[in-house]
């Protein structure tokens, strides 16, 4: 099975998923799709000899260009790992229940446009939450809205900062995202 990872940033989750399937006979990460020139995930793709695509915004939102790229690459599952653009309806429809996302908070709270990275953890702390965590969900045509696949929690203590919460949440992401990707692929 072929996995495509969409990412806009560092790519630490992409690296964990690549490592998880490195010697797997179930699946392999065979394509990296990025919308940010110079993003860390592109260096990971180069180092790992995985083909990567730097997408053009107009073509992404106004054509089937990248649907064709994914179909030509025989992609079975699209994994969003820190991809900051909303997925257009034609791509969601072309890959029904085949696109998943990870969000660094317990949706439906602290989700939506602009809610990513440290903004999320600042909002969680500012709201006085006693816990945070991760949400892995199917992608539909709205931000951070599709059916939840998994939520895992971490406690927030009085001396936590957005940075310490980010670390706890990242540990959950790296622990669970590869496992969930494998679980879904074993059903496809
Ligand atoms: N959607 C969010 O974007 C971040 C990506 O981090 P990385 O995988 O680029 O390190 C992760 O926190 C993920 O939950």
TrEMBL record:
Active site: 103 (proton donor)
A single GO molecular function term of this UniProt record: phosphoribosylglycinamide formyltransferase activity
One Pfam family, short name: Formyl_trans_N
CDD domains: FMT_core_GART (cd08645)
Stretches that traverse the bilayer: none
Catalytic reaction annotation: N(1)-(5-phospho-beta-D-ribosyl)glycinamide + (6R)-10-formyltetrahydrofolate = N(2)-formyl-N(1)-(5-phospho-beta-D-ribosyl)glycinamide + (6S)-5,6,7,8-tetrahydrofolate + H(+)
Domain (Formyl transferase N-terminal): residue spans on this chain: 1-179
InterPro entries: Formyl_transf_N, Formyl_transf_N_sf, GART, GART_AS
Enzyme nomenclature, EC number: 2.1.2.2
PROSITE patterns found in the cross-reference section: GART (PS00373)
Descriptive protein name: Phosphoribosylglycinamide formyltransferase
Site (Raises pKa of active site His): 144
Function, in words: Catalyzes the transfer of a formyl group from 10-formyltetrahydrofolate to 5-phospho-ribosyl-glycinamide (GAR), producing 5-phospho-ribosyl-N-formylglycinamide (FGAR) and tetrahydrofolate.
Keyword check for Plastid: no
Organism: Chitinophaga terrae (ex Kim and Jung 2007)
Pathway per the UniProt entry: Purine metabolism; IMP biosynthesis via de novo pathway; N(2)-formyl-N(1)-(5-phospho-D-ribosyl)glycinamide from N(1)-(5-phospho-D-ribosyl)glycinamide (10-formyl THF route): step 1/1
Cellular compartments per GO CC: cytosol
Family per record: Belongs to the GART family.
Keyword set includes Transferase: yes
